[in-house]
Design a protein that fits this description.
four-stranded antiparallel beta sheet, 339 residues
Amino acid sequence: MKQYIFASLLVLALLFAGCSQKGECPQDYQPVCGNDGITYSNSCFAQLAGTLVAHEGECSAVAATVPATPTELPSTQSTSPEPAPPAAPEPTQNTEEPAAPGAEAPAAVNPVPYAPSSCEETHRTFKLEDVRHVIASTQDPVTLYVDEELDIEGGVIFELEAIAGTTLHFDSYQNYADYEEERNVCQGTANLGETKQSNCHGGFTVGVSSVTPNFAELSFNQLNLAQYSDSEGVQTTYTGTNCPAPVKIYTEFSAEFYPPIATTGTPSYLSKEFKLFDESATITGANPAKKSLSITLKDVPYELTDGGTLVYQGKTYYVDISTEHNGIDEIELDEEKDD
């Protein structure tokens, strides 16, 4: 037992060798790890710090305090304990080369935790009626039949009420809503070969170049190629974080054209754009005799044919095309096929 105590005292004496009575320590670097988990330059500094030596050599890399390097020690002796340099990081698979002793430890990277999206869906049905879209404006002459109407300058609705010999009887409305409700009507007449200015609705002008018992060829300061559409469907909206944009799925869609889309006797619709499923579709061709309409939608060509189908964004729509006076006046798209 006495021999064990003597050996332990001898080890402690050797560890604390070099510490002077004045509290000064030598500057040689022989690191030891204190019981407090701090690496000291030598055992003398550990003794001055009032801690016992746990073992020789540096503490582990996860020690609470990062000690200073030997090159950072002051040039004069100091009575304060000086911490030792950090241990070089152990190389890992992603480490190109270990840091040199005394090099600054790399900053820790705190990855942002992945937050899964949390969205609530809201579904609502929508129904839109008589949505007006002006396709183009022109001064070209147009063929208009009795009881038919046109969208002219300023959004005024012009309706050919009757033809008596070479005299036209017409009604005009300030807008389409008045026309639908048959209110605020203004009546007028125009004769073959004259250009007449109306006293109603901003004083539009109408010129008559030819007349038959059923239709007349007319010209206006401005004629609008107009589209009136109805649609139904379901719109899905999302609320929360990282949510997709709202989605509108159509179940029915229809569009009427004033004047009808024809190849003769009316302004051309070719290269003109109309609205289809909230997108701009371009008319590239029309064949009223075959009830077919060629369009491009999002740069993709489509052929709409009466009795055929249109597949768009994964949905199939049945196509119904109506004609009147040698022109296509309405297209209907429906998820369900008419009996």
